[in-house]
Amino acid sequence: MVPRFQREYCWDDHVTMEFFKDIVSRLDFSSEGTVPRKLPYFMGTLLFLGTMHGTDGGNQLEIVDGQQRMTTITILLSALAARMHDINPSMSAKVFEYVLDTDNDGDPFPVLTTKTSYPFFQNYVQAPVAKREALISNPESEEDEAIKKAYDNFKKLLSGENLKKSICRIKGIDESILNGYEDIEILKAIRDEVLSTQVVLITTKDRQDANMIFEILNGKGVHLASVDLIKNKLFEALPVDSAADKAEELWGKAKAELTGRSNCAGFGTFYRHYWLSKYKRVKFDDLYQSFIDIGPKGKDESLAFLKELVDEAHLYSVIMNPQKSDFGNRKEYYPLIEYMQHLDEWFGVTQARIATLALLSAKKRNLIGAKDLLSCMQMMELFHFAYNSVCHMQSNKFEPGYSKFAIKLRKQTDKSGVKDTLMGLQKTLHGWLPDETSFVSGFCELTYSKKRGINSNKIMTTKYVINKIAAVKQGHDTFLDDLSVEHLIPESSSCDARLSVGNLIALEGSINKDVGNAELPEKMLKYRESKYVWMKEFLSTYEDFDNGSVRKRAEKLGKYMYNEIVCPVFV
Predict the structure, then answer these.
(1) Nearest Cα to 444, choosing from 552, 283, 321?
(2) According to DSSP H, which parts of 412-546 are helical?
(3) What global pTM score does this model have?
(4) pLDDT tens readout for residues 285-329
(5) What is the number of other CB atoms lying within 10 angstroms of the CB of residue 53?
């Protein structure tokens, strides 16, 4: 049985293929058509809770270490049985007994039981071959997808079309060597190799001993990620009989929060950012030891920790994919949604999530108002625009800086302490802000094209510039709805500077469609229909605009962006 604290099945195509190669590579085929000779395959160590005759509480062995391997073997045996069913149904049935057996009363039971992937694993892998198609449903989780991919990959490798080709490719032999073999002989050889796999088997009836051995086997993070070890420790503190399996319920809720929206995050990434945001900055491999050192102790603290993990996972999902409804559809928070989107999606500054998580937590505790929250997030947005997207400076200082800020912010118990902490972050970021010369130099290198295949990061940065300047000049807190990026000198022209930021301006999308690729003098007549302040300023400033004007305008826009938009948020 796969217990509830085990991580979900997650072997990908590469790992399952390596497993299949390990099995097949031990088969020795001769050109005379003799039966393939098996060489033993060693699968490593398996750790079970219970005895080989069953646990004290029932007739199941609980897998403590080895779930991924046992699940993969079950999937491979199921795929083998399905392939054999078309050739020799009785032989297929015997193989399938290692997947679904019968008890003394003749009732079927799965050899491997798992709760996390129920009912997909049972229907896709463990249902009898003849009944399986009617039971199959679409995957509903990442674990379901991994199970489906593993089964489908094995099924493809074992198919009549690919079986011999796969073996020849893996072993580096000529296909003629396998001409003397029937498919069923090769399938039987693979079956026998799987069933004769050698392992080091450790069993214990004591759960604490099992957990201690588990930590010894995996404590260095070689076999399992730190988060899996942490999950094991939390579930150990909250056994089913004393908490109605609250641990599994809360862990599942936290995962559901992270996968319930688009742009979902991996649990490991979320957990590390949460830990850095509240407890201590550590490397991913050191998360487990940090959890042991300063994490929750005992049942009550572990339960409270899991409840907080659900809340923080929700806040993290908001950061990844903010919605207006997350903030009660209040217009004052609309700019906040843009700030988070720009930091995460446009600028790709994932370290900022550490600070944002603490800020949203402070908001939830009513320690920070809308004004201060928006001011702080706007400052972070503009700082990273200048530092990362324009000047491309080193980012290794952000994680320790944001972790220190977030931990300090979470320790505050009143609004005065929160304000002081925000001022500290403002001072830190201001000290890291590039100077005007560096900013303008990087700004003048920005380009924009509507054609595919151009550097997407640079395009997003330039698109941000045009939207930001237009919004500021229009007196808006958020980007304008109908804005399009207009090339003054047409992009289709031969002008060297046609893609430069100095050749760009904001224009209503409806007007942009009408002007098309006309020459600038003709387009300027149409520009007069625009309601944008920025366009009116351009028309009043330039009667003629050519290649030589672009560079000067780029420098002018860069200075405006730096002095009128970026720097004021630090005052």
Answers:
(1) 552
(2) 415-432, 436-443, 456-474, 509-515, 520-527, 533-541
(3) 0.69
(4) 889 889 999 999 989 999 999 999 999 999 999 999 999 999 999
(5) 8
